[in-house]
Design brief:
One of its GO terms (cellular component) is plasma membrane. This protein is α/β, with parallel strands linked by helices and 376 residues long. It is built from six helices and 16 strands. Strands 2-1-3-7-9-11-12-13-14 form a nine-stranded mixed sheet, covered by helices on one side. A three-stranded parallel sheet has the order 4-8-10, with no helix packed on it. It has a two-stranded antiparallel sheet with strand order 5-6.
Length: 376
């Protein structure tokens, strides 16, 4: 029996090994370019306008060599533990980053067991706009950890702060690291927070604060007043065990009444206690259900259902739309009045000619006994 040459089976085997990598690269291309999810296996990927490279490797430190044109970088499942100064730019040399990445805008570092961020950990990334540190276990954040990230707008710390349960612990952990940033969105979901972060630790101009899926039961007035000083901030409060009694819910309702709008996703705001209100939507509560004895106006309806202001606004908007449709219809009629008059005149003449034809035929054949010579 002839033996197959060794080279015959090498190509199929190589192709079988490369197929999973090709599939993974295809799956990661869209998330990287659209700032979406990162890879779900230990790997790191980077994308430039022309190339996309992914490697299945568990990193112990940031990759030492990256092309200067890299736009998106994702590292998942690594064991980075500590991010030192200029960790992604080749370290610190002569007072600046050794290899700055001037085009990097998206950095995803999820599930990387990161515990500490040292001073200027992200130095050398001047264009960084989105940083995702979710699903880590941050225990130490230096005050200047984000120094040099002047373009940073979105910071995700979802399930990344295991020790920051109350405001004091969160303040000690952040320790002024966010104050000098120009963030517009900060995500702190899933951290089991029992209090809102102190407003002194948050950057001014923040537009969205995501504290969903935490352990918030009541929001003290002093915390809400501090958030009001930051500007038109929108709170994402869904999936928190809110306590719906007068003392606990009144500060939130008063703050929302004075704020520019309701919290995003307010349909997911439900009461967790007391027992008779468990699962009840917050904005379907009646004022009498809270048991406020002083009769303060909390912005809740007295007869249940949604508050009257949004409903009234919807009816007004519907009436305006109908009025605009009527005005447009009248304008069309007015602009085409001559054509409509001509069409009605032609229709009337056609009907008159038709009726005269029937009348003439009836007069001509009115006596059936009279037959014309052609009928004989």
């Amino acid at each position: 029996m002839a033996q197959r040459p060794a080279g015959d089976g090498a190509a199929p085997l190589s192709a079988r090994r490369l197929l999973p990598c090709a599939i993974l690269a295809g799956m990661l291309l869209l998330p990287l370019l659209q700032a979406g999810r990162s890879c779900s296996t230990p790997c790191f990927c980077f994308a430039t306008p022309d190339t996309l490279q992914c490697r299945l490797v568990r990193l112990l430190e940031p990759p030492p060599e990256l092309p200067a044109a890299v736009h998106n970088l994702s590292i998942t499942g690594g064991n980075l533990t500590v991010l030192r100064t200029a960790a992604f730019s080749g370290g610190w040399a002569d007072g600046e980053a050794a290899r700055p990445l001037a085009n990097l805008t998206l950095l995803l570092l999820t599930h990387d067991h990161i515990e500490a961020l040292e001073e200027a950990a992200f130095a050398g990334l001047p264009a960084l706009a989105t940083l995702d540190l979710s699903h880590n276990r941050l225990r130490s954040v230096a005050p200047g950890a984000f120094a040099g990230c002047a373009q940073l707008r979105t910071l995700r710390l979802n399930q990344a702060l295991p020790a920051a349960r109350d405001a004091r612990a969160l303040e000690e952990l952040l320790d002024g690291a966010l104050v000098n940033l120009s963030l517009t969105r900060l995500e702190l979901a899933g951290n089991r927070l029992r209090e809102l972060p102190p407003w002194t630790t948050l950057p001014s101009g923040l537009l969205h604060l995501d504290v969903r899926n935490n352990s918030l039961q009541a929001l003290p007035p002093e915390q809400l007043d501090g958030l009001a000083a930051l500007g038109p901030l929108r709170l994402h409060l869904g999936s928190n065990p809110l306590r719906c009694d007068c003392a606990s819910l009144r500060p939130l309702l008063v703050w929302l009444r004075n704020a520019t709008g309701r919290p995003a996703g307010d349909k997911s705001l439900h009461c967790a206690s007391p027992r008779h209100l468990r699962g009840w939507p917050v904005f379907r509560l009646r004022a009498s259900q809270l048991g406020c004895r002083d009769g303060a106006d909390l912005g809740l309806p007295e007869d249940g259902g949604q508050p009257s202001e949004p409903e009234t606004a919807s009816y007004v908007f519907f009436g305006i739309v109908l009025a605009l449709i009527g005005v447009v219809f009248l304008m069309v009629l007015y602009l085409n009045r001559k054509g409509i008059k001509r069409w009605l005149s032609n229709l009337r003449e056609a009907c008159r000619d038709q009726m005269e034809g029937y009348h003439y035929r009836y007069e001509q054949d009115s006596d059936p006994r009279r037959a014309s010579p052609g009928d004989l």
